[in-house]
């Protein structure tokens, strides 16, 4: 085999592997989210003013934020699942950070200073801290099972990334139930709710994803 053919073969194999892993991760999130959706329908349900909420910038920003977090976490999960992890996933984190800071700045400019504390605490903080971890369990299980076949460079980081992705998927679902739309609330309680899922993913990943 000539050198050019060998290089082309290696590139093609890498492309097929990347596509296969991306599809497997997407499938794991989708299948795991079926369980999350069942829990959501039975225990939570969508907020009653959902149609009106779509007309507000805070609710729309919340959806954009959690969807951006989902994409950033998916990129990190796919990258860190490989034996040689690329750093391209960090761009998604930067975009998410810029979006978060921008939304927070707009909220602080528009909302009276006296309402900041109320908006931050909200009315669903306790529910948020419980619901997102529970809704994340299905996607997390699916992701960890998929990543067992991927030989990640760092099982702990790959597990943590799968936890972040599972939490982001849960946050997208929970956003349709949560009545607290202020960026002050979302940027405080949603990340706090994701922490135990990320830690669980890291701990289980350390044991389950080792070569």
TrEMBL record:
KW Cytoplasm (keyword) present: no
* Originating organism: Reyranella aquatilis
UniProtKB keywords: Membrane, Transmembrane, Transmembrane helix
Tell me the superkingdom of the source: Bacteria
- InterPro entries from the UniProt entry: NrsF (IPR009495)
A Pfam family (short name) is: NrsF
Is Transmembrane set as a keyword in this record? yes
Ranges that cross the membrane? 24-42, 62-81, 93-111, 131-147, 156-176, 188-209
Q: What is this protein called?
A: NrsF family protein
């Amino acid at each position: 085999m000539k050198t050019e053919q060998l290089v082309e073969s290696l590139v093609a194999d890498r492309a097929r592997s990347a596509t296969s892993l991306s599809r497997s991760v997407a499938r794991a999130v989708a299948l795991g989210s079926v369980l999350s959706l069942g829990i959501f329908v039975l225990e939570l349900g969508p907020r009653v003013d959902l149609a009106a909420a779509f007309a507000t910038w805070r609710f729309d920003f919340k959806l954009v934020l959690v969807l951006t977090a989902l994409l950033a976490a998916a990129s990190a999960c796919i990258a860190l699942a490989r034996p040689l992890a690329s750093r391209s996933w960090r761009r998604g984190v930067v975009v998410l950070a810029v979006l978060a800071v921008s939304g927070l700045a707009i909220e602080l400019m528009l909302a009276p200073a006296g309402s900041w504390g109320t908006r931050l605490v909200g009315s669903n903080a306790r529910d948020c801290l419980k619901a997102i971890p529970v809704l994340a369990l299905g996607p997390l299980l699916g992701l960890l099972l998929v990543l067992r076949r991927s030989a990640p460079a760092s099982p702990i980081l790959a597990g943590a990334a799968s936890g972040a992705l599972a939490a982001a998927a849960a946050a997208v679902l929970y956003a349709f139930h949560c009545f607290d739309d202020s960026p002050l609330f979302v940027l405080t309680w949603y990340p706090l709710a994701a922490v135990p899922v990320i830690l669980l993913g890291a701990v289980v990943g350390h044991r389950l994803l080792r070569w």
